[in-house]
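Quiz preparation item.
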């Protein structure tokens, strides 16, 4: 048995070496720009530019109960990002995506500047953090979701034409949601560091909201998806909130330099058993444990976090326990394996070291087409790349039909699709949401890994002292809408924003099979047993 395992490891390593020998030369700056442009394609609200000419204004009346519209008549929650190929704003994965983008900007700011992408990177982060600030409607209250996933997923068409009701779901002291509060705190704390030089007033605003949200999540503890039952079929909190408490606390320690946050994060880490719970798992929108380990290692240099992270990373390497496809992709589960591999590649790069950078490069290059099928998993990149990702706006059906037109009308440039099967197989089929879903969290770790690879010598992760808090007094969240609207005039969203899920059934029956992946067992048997439940829903 030991001989068989050793032979298998050697075959995997040889496969990786062959892949590297046959590897293409990739322009990581170009791909990084494409990856950021995907976020522009998923923007909601009144768009400030027409960089994605086939997208227009949408959901302009999204608003929290009792709020007033801005000068353009738009609701306070009209902005932000749609989650995936749908029209729901799920707060937890959106906040996670902004945290990861913030982290990669902080870690690789010089690489991003080398690519000439500083402004685009910060713009991408701010479009999400502006929404998180707007969603923080009270010191101990936050909007966690806009839109009913069931209603939304029963219709297939571009968001500019959506007409279904869009309920607003909140968490508060009486009905707490620690995950969304602490993840938003992490995102805004990271943003406060990212914007400190270029926009100190905005940085201070982000930090003030981050402090309140972390306090809210810690003081009033509860699983957010127990409160917002509509989220359970889409983004149920499988890991619970303990990892989020440590993650948010560590980010506030980094942003403020306040030892109180660091001391508490370390104590919670130990009492919650985050190190052990993270082993053999992925870092993702649900489980922040691996990232929390790495961040605490960066902040302290303690051997505990070093050992825990190296144990976690070892699992992802050949022979460590994770499944590898024959072509060399670290494949943890069937639902969105590209997303998990890319995020692990990012964390590996942040930790640094030649072996870890080699892992990062091998995983990312596989996704860019260095694999047996020469298949790129990034829309618009490579000779053989997806053209039919599972995305309503890019497909642009006007008949509520996932099969009409046959091919997507628009190219969703830069989107990372779900990825291959465990045997490297892949079919560019929009209806196969397991392999062709795209989402803001899919791209979040991916663009970070790309930023690292722009200059691999920049990937060492020295133990750094926490960043000091901005000295400027906090300002209020921005209240103005973007100054320019897109050139098209799509249909506006409904005028009401109910606070509870609508009780009526959708007006049109869905014409297709479910469109996103469930959070529990998938509807089709996986080819290999996943170590954890998949993450999205039909």
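Solution:
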């Amino acid at each position: 048995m030991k001989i068989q395992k050793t032979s298998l490891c050697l075959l995997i390593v040889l496969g990786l070496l062959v892949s590297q020998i046959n590897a293409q030369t990739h322009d990581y700056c170009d791909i990084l720009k494409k990856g950021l442009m995907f976020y522009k394609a998923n923007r909601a609200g009144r768009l400030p530019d027409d960089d994605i000419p086939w997208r227009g204004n949408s959901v302009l009346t999204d608003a929290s109960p009792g709020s007033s519209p801005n000068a353009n008549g738009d609701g306070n929650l009209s902005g932000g990002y749609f989650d995936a190929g749908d029209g729901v704003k799920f707060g937890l994965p959106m906040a996670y995506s902004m945290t990861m983008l913030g982290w990669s900007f902080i870690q690789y700011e010089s690489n991003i500047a080398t690519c000439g992408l500083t402004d685009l990177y910060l713009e991408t982060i701010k479009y999400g953090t502006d929404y998180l600030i707007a969603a923080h409607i009270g010191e101990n209250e936050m909007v966690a979701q806009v839109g009913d996933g069931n209603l939304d997923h029963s219709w297939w068409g571009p968001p500019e034409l959506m007409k279904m009701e869009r309920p607003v779901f909140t968490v508060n002291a009486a009905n707490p949601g620690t995950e969304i509060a602490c993840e938003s705190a992490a995102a805004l704390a990271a943003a406060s560091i990212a914007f400190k030089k270029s926009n100190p007033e905005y940085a201070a605003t982000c930090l003030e909201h981050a402090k309140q949200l972390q306090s809210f999540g810690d003081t009033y503890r509860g699983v957010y998806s127990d409160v917002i039952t509509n989220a359970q079929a889409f983004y149920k909190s499988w890991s619970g909130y303990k990892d989020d408490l440590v993650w948010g606390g560590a980010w506030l320690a980094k942003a403020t330099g306040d030892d109180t946050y660091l001391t508490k994060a370390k104590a919670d880490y130990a009492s919650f058993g985050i190190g052990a719970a993270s082993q053999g798992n992925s870092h993702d929108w649900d489980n922040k444990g691996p990232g929390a380990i790495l961040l605490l290692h960066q902040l302290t240099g303690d051997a505990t976090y070093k050992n825990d992270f190296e144990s976690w990373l070892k699992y992802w390497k050949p022979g460590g326990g994770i499944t590898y496809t024959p072509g060399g992709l670290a494949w943890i589960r069937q639902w969105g394996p590209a997303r998990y591999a890319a995020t692990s590649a990012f964390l590996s790069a942040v930790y640094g070291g030649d072996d870890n950078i080699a892992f990062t490069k091998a995983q990312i290059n596989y996704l860019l087409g260095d694999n047996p099928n020469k298949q790129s998993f990034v829309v618009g990149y490579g000779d053989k790349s997806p053209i039919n990702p599972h995305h309503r706006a890019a497909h642009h059906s006007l008949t509520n039909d996932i099969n009409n037109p046959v091919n997507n009308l628009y190219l969703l440039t830069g989107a990372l699709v779900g990825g291959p099967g465990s045997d490297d197989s892949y079919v560019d089929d929009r209806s196969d949401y397991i392999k062709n879903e795209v989402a803001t969290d899919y791209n979040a770790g991916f663009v970070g890994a790309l930023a690292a690879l722009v200059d691999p010598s920049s990937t060492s992760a020295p133990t750094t002292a926490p960043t000091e808090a901005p000295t400027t007094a906090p300002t209020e969240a921005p209240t103005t809408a973007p100054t320019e609207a897109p050139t098209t005039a799509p249909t506006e969203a409904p005028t009401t924003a109910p606070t509870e899920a609508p009780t009526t059934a959708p007006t049109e029956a869905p014409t297709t099979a479910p469109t996103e992946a469930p959070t529990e067992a998938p509807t089709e048997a996986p080819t290999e047993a996943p170590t954890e439940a998949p993450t999205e829903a039909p």
